[in-house]
Inverse folding.
């Protein structure tokens, strides 16, 4: 029979027993009214018992909860805020002690970084769903840091290739976050600048890494190019742009008197500005 003595040295089983008596581990009540849907990401923002915001994702078998700040799981690996911070510090220390190029990431190191990247990925797509675009970009940039580190220092060629393959995808997410932020404010022109910048960034990366065959077949480039066309078609046209289009059409159709009138309107508009 287990002792009921509660002296200064409490048995760990007694502690667990006490917790189980006072805590409800069944999450059914937390899921009540929040049905799972396989066709969409089910995300909500809550306030934790610590008073800080959290993200919850409804899964088919329950839910996943993530921290709003820091690592999504709330841990501090190796005393650092993230694994990326830890390995960046190791890289700097290695360069200082043994010279540049001495740092190497083992397969296990890359696996640990990949596990962290997956956690940040889940939070990133959750931020997209919550329309927290600046935070989505922040988490995407964190993962770009992981990919860059693995590509530069991974010991295994397989890990370097994996980093190359995922970089366009995460870069596209960075671009998407910035563009969506502008579109939320009806700033189509600024969104187009971001989209075109993302296209250029991915194209340059593919050229830099020798993946020329992907310039026409990269799914991220295909998505961004289509999105560029869509945003351009919905962009409000300024009076000057409208008159310029009408002038071009008049000249192409030999409507020279109309073209002269439109030129006068354009000059008048420029003088007003």
């Amino acid at each position: 029979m287990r002792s009921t003595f509660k002296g200064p040295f409490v048995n760990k089983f007694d502690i667990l027993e006490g917790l189980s008596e006072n805590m409800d581990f069944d999450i059914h009540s937390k899921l009540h009214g929040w049905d799972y849907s396989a066709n969409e990401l089910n995300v909500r923002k809550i306030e934790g018992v610590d008073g800080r915001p959290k993200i919850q994702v409804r899964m088919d078998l329950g839910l996943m909860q993530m921290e709003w700040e820091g690592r999504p799981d709330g841990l501090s690996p190796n005393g650092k805020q993230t694994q990326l911070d830890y390995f960046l510090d190791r890289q700097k220390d290695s360069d200082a002690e043994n010279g540049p190029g001495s740092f190497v990431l083992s397969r296990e190191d890359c696996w640990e970084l990949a596990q962290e990247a997956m956690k940040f990925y889940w939070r990133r797509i959750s931020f997209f769903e919550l329309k927290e675009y600046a935070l989505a970009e922040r988490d995407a940039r964190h993962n770009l840091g992981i990919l860059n580190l693995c590509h530069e220092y991974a010991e295994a060629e397989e890990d370097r290739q994996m980093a190359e393959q995922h970089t366009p995808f995460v870069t596209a997410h960075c671009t998407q976050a910035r563009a969506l932020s502008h579109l939320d404010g009806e700033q189509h022109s600024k969104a187009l600048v971001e989209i075109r910048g993302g296209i250029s960034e991915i194209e340059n990366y593919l050229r830099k890494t020798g993946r020329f065959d992907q310039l026409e077949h990269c799914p991220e480039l295909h998505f961004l190019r289509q999105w560029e066309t869509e945003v351009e078609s919905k962009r409000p046209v300024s009076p000057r742009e409208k008159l310029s289009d009408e002038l071009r059409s008049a000249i192409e159709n030999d409507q020279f008197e109309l073209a002269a009138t439109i030129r006068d309107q354009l000059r008048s508009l420029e003088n007003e500005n």
